[in-house]
TrEMBL record:
Stored NCBIfam families: hydantase
UniProt keyword terms in alphabetical order: Hydrolase, Manganese, Metal-binding, Zinc
Protein name: Zn-dependent hydrolase
Species of provenance: Halovibrio variabilis
Family statement: Belongs to the peptidase M20 family.
Residues annotated to bind Zn(2+) 2: D98, E133, H388
C-alpha cells in the first residue's frame, strides 16, 4: 500500500483506537462475531454512546429499531439533515472493519470538526444501524429499512435458531419494536445519505489508491435449486441404473460457474449444498443448493437468469432426476446519486487523490436508504481486498486519507 504522510494522522489514530476496542465486543473465537441483540451487541451500545458524546454530539439516542443515533447541529438551523452511517453487526467470524468502520471513522471526523470549534452548514446524524448482515434472523437491512420507511413489520415475528423473535431481540437492546414505525424519516427532512466502507475487493489496492467513489450498489438475486433422484445401496446398485442427485448437482454447480465466467459484470456462487440422506454408503436422493447472481445492471442479471435456466435444463433434463428452481430473494441495484458522487469526487480531489469510480459488488445499507434520499458511498482500500474474514486489515494512513475526504465532504455539503 502507498505510504501517505500526514503531520498528525489524528483521525486515523483515533478511529483505529476505537475500532480496536469495538472488536473486543465479540463472541469467543476467530475474528469478530457480533450479531443483532447479542450480549456483545448490548455491551457495545453504551460504549458507542459515550464515544458519540465525547465527539461533541448534541444528542444521542437509541431508536425503536435498535439503531444508535448521534446528532451534531449545523450552523443553518433550517437546513436538512445529512445522514451518515453503517452497521454494527458482523457475519460470524468476520473482521474488525466491515460495517463498524463506517461508524467510527466518521465519528472521528465529527470529533475533529467539533474540536476545531466550527460547525458544518447542515446538521449531521451518525447512525450505527442495528443489523445489515442478517446473520441472526436472515433478514438484512433491518435498521436502515426502518429509517428509510420501508421496514416489513412481518419480520418482527421471525425467529432465530433458538426461537427468539426479532421483536424480542430489539426489546433486549432497549428498543420498543411496537413503535418501530416512528423511526422512519420523511424525505423532506433529509438532504442525503453517505456511507464509508472498506472496498471488500482488490481494485483500489491493485491501483495503489486509498479511496474510491462508488457509482452503484449491486443487484442481487438468490434461488433454491432442488434436484430429486432416488436413494439406493451404494454397493449394489449398478452405475448405469443410478439416479444420483449429487452428480447432477455437481453439473449444476459447473453451469453456474461457467455462466458467470462468460458474462461481463456478473458474479455468482453456489454457497450452500445440502445432501439427503447424507450417508457414506447411500446414493444421494436429493440435493438442495443455493444459487446467487449479482450485477450492477438489472438487465444483465435478468438475461443471465434466463440463460441459467436454459443451461440447467440442458444439464439436468433427461438425467432421470427431477428438478425445480424457486426464487428466494431479489434486490435491484441502486445507483448512487450523481450529486453525491460529484461532492465525494470533489472532496477526493481536494484531499489530493485521483478520483477512481467503481461499483460495489456487495450489498450495503444504502440499498434501503435509497428509498428515502439520495445516497453515496466512499470505498476505502483494504489489504488483499479481504472481507468477511478475521484477517480484514486497513492502515492508519488510509483511515486518515478517508477521514480527510469525509471531512471535506461534510464541510462543503450544502444541506
Amino acid at each position: 500500500m502507498t505510504e501517505l504522510v500526514f503531520t498528525e494522522c489524528r483521525i486515523g489514530i483515533q478511529s483505529r483506537s476505537w475500532l480496536k476496542t469495538a472488536a473486543t465486543y465479540s463472541e469467543p473465537g476467530p475474528g469478530v462475531t457480533r450479531v443483532l441483540g447479542s450480549a456483545e451487541h448490548r455491551a457495545l451500545l453504551p460504549v458507542l454512546a459515550d464515544w458519540y458524546r465525547e465527539a461533541g454530539a448534541d444528542a444521542v439516542w437509541l431508536d425503536d429499531a435498535g439503531n444508535l443515533v448521534g446528532r451534531w447541529e449545523g450552523s443553518l438551523l433550517d437546513a436538512r439533515t445529512l445522514l451518515i452511517g453503517s452497521h454494527q453487526d458482523t457475519v460470524r467470524q468476520g473482521g474488525a472493519y466491515d460495517g463498524i468502520m463506517g461508524v467510527l471513522l466518521p465519528l472521528a471526523v465529527l470529533s475533529e470538526i467539533n474540536r476545531s470549534g466550527r460547525r458544518p452548514a447542515t446538521a449531521v446524524e451518525l447512525v450505527a444501524f442495528c443489523d445489515e448482515e442478517g446473520t441472526r434472523f436472515a433478514s438484512t437491512l433491518i435498521g436502515s429499512s426502518a429509517i428509510a420507511g420501508n421496514f416489513n413489520r412481518d419480520l418482527l415475528a421471525v425467529t432465530d435458531s433458538d426461537g427468539v423473535t426479532l421483536a424480542d431481540a430489539l426489546r433486549a437492546l432497549g428498543s420498543n419494536p411496537d413503535q418501530i414505525d416512528r423511526v422512519a424519516r420523511q424525505p423532506e427532512q433529509v438532504s442525503g445519505y453517505v456511507e464509508v466502507h472498506i472496498e471488500q475487493g482488490p481494485i483500489l489496492e491493485a491501483e495503489n489508491l486509498p479511496v474510491g467513489v462508488v457509482t452503484a450498489i449491486t443487484g442481487i438475486e438468490r434461488h433454491r435449486l432442488t434436484i430429486t433422484g432416488k436413494a439406493g445401496h451404494a454397493g449394489t446398485t449398478p452405475m448405469h441404473l443410478r439416479k444420483d442427485a449429487l452428480v447432477r448437482a455437481a453439473r449444476a454447480v459447473l453451469v453456474v460457474d461457467e455462466l458467470c465466467h462468460s458474462t461481463d459484470d456478473l458474479v455468482g456462487v453456489v454457497g450452500q449444498l445440502d445432501v439427503t440422506p447424507g450417508a457414506v454408503n447411500v446414493i444421494p436422493a436429493e440435493v438442495t443448493m443455493s444459487i446467487e447472481l449479482r450485477s450492477p445492471d438489472s438487465a444483465i442479471r435478468r438475461r443471465a437468469r434466463l440463460d441459467l435456466m436454459e443451461r440447467l435444463a440442458g444439464a439436468l433434463d433427461g438425467s432421470g432426476c427431477q428438478w425445480k428452481v424457486e426464487t428466494t430473494y431479489e434486490q435491484n441495484e441502486v445507483r448512487c446519486a450523481e450529486s453525491v458522487q460529484w461532492a465525494l469526487a470533489q472532496a477526493v480531489e481536494d484531499a489530493g487523490y485521483p478520483v477512481r469510480r467503481l461499483f460495489s459488488g456487495a450489498g450495503h445499507d444504502g440499498l434501503a436508504m435509497a428509498h428515502l434520499t439520495n445516497i453515496g458511498m466512499l470505498f476505502m482500500r483494504c489489504k488483499d481486498g479481504l472481507s468477511h474474514h478475521p484477517d480484514e486489515s486497513v492502515t492508519t494512513e488510509d483511515l486518515e486519507a478517508s477521514g480527510q475526504v469525509i471531512r471535506r465532504f461534510i464541510e462543503s455539503w450544502p444541506g
